[in-house]
Design a protein that fits this description.
CATH class: Mainly Beta
Number of helices: 7
Order of helices and strands: HEEEEHHHEEEHEEEHEH
GO molecular function: heme binding
InterPro entries: Catalase_sf
Organism: Chryseobacterium culicis
Protein name: Catalase
Radius of gyration: 20 Å
Oligomer: single chain
Strand content: 15-25%
Number of strands: 11
Number of domains: 1
CATH architecture: Beta Barrel
C-alpha cells in the first residue's frame, strides 16, 4: 500500500476573481435567509440549502476494533455520541408528498464531554456536477436571486447552467444519475450517503461513505417521506457501515475534480453508525432548528479539503449567523 498523500493548504486556495464572486454570493445568501420564511411560507428563517428537515435523532458511532494502525489515533474511544439530521436539498420548503430524491444525512460527532469533534453533511449522491469555482458561485448567486423573485437573473442562470453541462457528461456522473433515477422512489434510509468532497484526517485526505445495513427500500412507499421516516425510526433500530477512502495520488484521487469517483482507493470500514428506535428529537424545538452542521466548525484535523469545499465555509457562516439572529428574535417574540 503506497503512503497517503499529505494535506496541503494549496488544495483550498481561491484566486482573486473567485474571492470577489464569493463576497457577492455571501450577500445573496444573507438576503435569501432573511426572506426565507416568506419564500417557504414558514414562521422561521430556514437554511440556505437543505432547508427541509425530515427528522433529528440521537445516535452513536461505534469504532471497529481492528482499524488500521494509521487511523487509531483519531478513534481512541469505542464509541462516540451523534446528533443526526435528515433533510432534503431544496432551498424552499414545500409541503408535498413527493420530494425530489436529494437527501441529506448530516452527522455531528461529540467527545465524551459533549464537545464538538466533527460535522459531516453527507448526501445521497457521490459526485458534484461543477468543478469551476466561478461557475458554481455565479450559478448559486443567480439561484438565490431567482428565489427572491429577481426575474432579470433568469438569463445569467441559464448561462451558468449551460457552462456546467460538460461536467455532467463524465462516465461516473452519467452512471450515478441513472442509478439515482432507478432508486428515486426508494426509502430515504436505504440510500448510501457520501461526503462528496474530501476531508482531512490529520495529515491524510479522505472521502467518506455511509452504507445502511438491511433496510427495506420499499418501506412506507405510499406515505410522505417525513411521516415514513418518523414511523421507521420509532419502530426500528438503524445501522450503517462507515467507510473511508484515502487519497494516495491526485491523478487517481483528485481533490478538486468532484465529478469523477476516486479510483484505486479501496474502502476501509472504520465503524458503524447506529440509531436505536425511539431516539427521535423534536424537530419543532427551536434548539434543534438552530443546530449547525458546518464542517468547518470541526476540529482542524477533521475539516474539509478543496476549493469548492472552501466556499461552503463562508456560505455556512453567513447562513447560520443570519438564521440564528432572525430565529432568536422570532423565538423571543413568541415566548
Amino acid at each position: 500500500m503506497p503512503n497517503p498523500l499529505k494535506y496541503n493548504k494549496k488544495f483550498d486556495e481561491l484566486n482573486e476573481e473567485e474571492k470577489k464572486l464569493l463576497e457577492i454570493n455571501k450577500k445573496t445568501i444573507a438576503d435569501f435567509v432573511e426572506q426565507s420564511s416568506s419564500i417557504s411560507d414558514v414562521n422561521y428563517a430556514t437554511r440556505n440549502a437543505h432547508a427541509k428537515t425530515y427528522a433529528v435523532a440521537k445516535g452513536t458511532f461505534h469504532i471497529e476494533p481492528d482499524i488500521p494502525e494509521l487511523l487509531q489515533p483519531f478513534f481512541d474511544k469505542e464509541k462516540f455520541d451523534l446528533t443526526i439530521r435528515f433533510s432534503n436539498a431544496q432551498l424552499k420548503i414545500q409541503n408535498s408528498k413527493k420530494d425530489i430524491p436529494a437527501y441529506g444525512f448530516a452527522v455531528q460527532i461529540k467527545d465524551e464531554n459533549g464537545g464538538l469533534l466533527a460535522n459531516y453533511p453527507l448526501v445521497n449522491f457521490p459526485l458534484f456536477p461543477i468543478n469551476s469555482v466561478s461557475t458554481f458561485l455565479k450559478l448559486f448567486t443567480a439561484i438565490n436571486q431567482l428565489y427572491m423573485k429577481q426575474w432579470r437573473k433568469v438569463f445569467p442562470l441559464c448561462i451558468q447552467m449551460v457552462k456546467m453541462i460538460p461536467s455532467l457528461f463524465t462516465g461516473d456522473m452519467l452512471r450515478n444519475i441513472i442509478k439515482l433515477i432507478g432508486k428515486r422512489n426508494d426509502f430515504i434510509l436505504s440510500f448510501d450517503y457520501y461526503s462528496v468532497g474530501a476531508y482531512r484526517l490529520g495529515d491524510q485526505v479522505i472521502k467518506i461513505k455511509l452504507s445502511p445495513q438491511s433496510v427495506d427500500k420499499n418501506f412506507g412507499k405510499k406515505l410522505k417521506i417525513k411521516d415514513v421516516l418518523k414511523s421507521y425510526l420509532l419502530t426500528h433500530d438503524f445501522a450503517a457501515d462507515v467507510l473511508i477512502q484515502v487519497c494516495y495520488d491526485l491523478k487517481d484521487q483528485p481533490i478538486n475534480r468532484l465529478n469523477i469517483e476516486w479510483k484505486n482507493a479501496p474502502f476501509i470500514k472504520i465503524g458503524e453508525v447506529r440509531i436505536n428506535k425511539d431516539s427521535l428529537l423534536d424537530v419543532r424545538n427551536c434548539t434543534n432548528e438552530l443546530l449547525s452542521f458546518n464542517p468547518f466548525e470541526s476540529k482542524i484535523f477533521f475539516q474539509p479539503v478543496g476549493k469548492i469545499q472552501k466556499l461552503r465555509d463562508e456560505a455556512y457562516k453567513v447562513s447560520v449567523q443570519t438564521r440564528r439572529k432572525i430565529n432568536k428574535l422570532l423565538h423571543g417574540k413568541n415566548s
